[in-house]
Amino acid sequence: MQENDSAQIADYAKEIRPTSNEQTATLQYLKKYPKTLSLPFEFEGRNQYRKDHGMVPADNLTIQLMDSLYGKGLLNPYNKIIYEKYKEANEALVSFSKTDIKTLNSLTFETLNRYRQFTQHHDIPKISDSEAIFANRFMTKPNGEKISYRDGYRLWCNFWDLRNNTMASNIIKAANKYKGKRIVVLTGVQHKYYLKELLEKYYDGNYTVIEYFR
């Protein structure tokens, strides 16, 4: 199972991405074992959904504006502390990204990643919710409607929870459909901690989670 939706899986081999570990490994495995099923578990139409609802590019525009305000010393003292926590967490993740794959799958990274993602999706919105400028800057959605940076970023943050819950649900559905079969889940490392928590939370007795790097 891969972090793709059904349309992406259907076109999976049409666009080769040399830097994608997941695609390279999958295509090599399918070539060796052609009867293996390659299944999606992503939120259907993820990218277009985010654009249609004004989450993208509001996510990047909000962070860019926030960074500019921080650099000019225009955030209030409380928001400055929040943003500095976010920057420090990002810098720590960048340092980890230069290590090996086993380190990226360690509990140390998992703890840091959980903290960074929480900061990005739960603390950073406190800045855009409390600073008036984010309610007065707008972008235009594909349907022509305008949406403020504040509302767009809040929707983007909420989608993080919806997306991961959908992914976990799709994995569980596959585990029930193919009960007794071995299922390999290939996902970005920033989703790993969240999916593990959800698979434990929604455990129905029909699967066992085994981590490769443990």
Short description:
The protein is 60% helix and 3% strand.
Describe the protein's topology:
Layout: H1 6-10, H2 21-32, H3 46-52, H4 58-71, H5 77-97, H6 101-104, H7 107-130, E1 138-140, E2 146-148, H8 149-177, H9 189-201
Antiparallel strand pairs: 1-2
- Number of helices, counting only DSSP H or I runs of 4 residues or more: 9
Integer tally of domains: 1
Shape: globular
How much strand? under 5%
- Rounded mean pLDDT is 94
Strand order of the largest sheet: 1-2
Can you characterise this structure?
By secondary structure, this protein is mainly alpha-helical. It has one domain (6-201). Helices cover 60% and strands 3% of the residues. The protein is built from nine helices and two strands. It has helices at residues 6-10, 21-32, 46-52, 58-71, 77-97, 101-104, 107-130, 149-177, 189-201, and strands spanning 138-140, 146-148. A two-stranded antiparallel sheet has the order 1-2. Strand 1 (138-140) and strand 2 form a beta hairpin. Helix 4 (58-71) packs across helix 8 (149-177), helix 5 (77-97) packs antiparallel against helix 7 (107-130) and helix 8 crosses helix 9. The protein is globular. The model has no long low-confidence stretch (mean pLDDT 94).
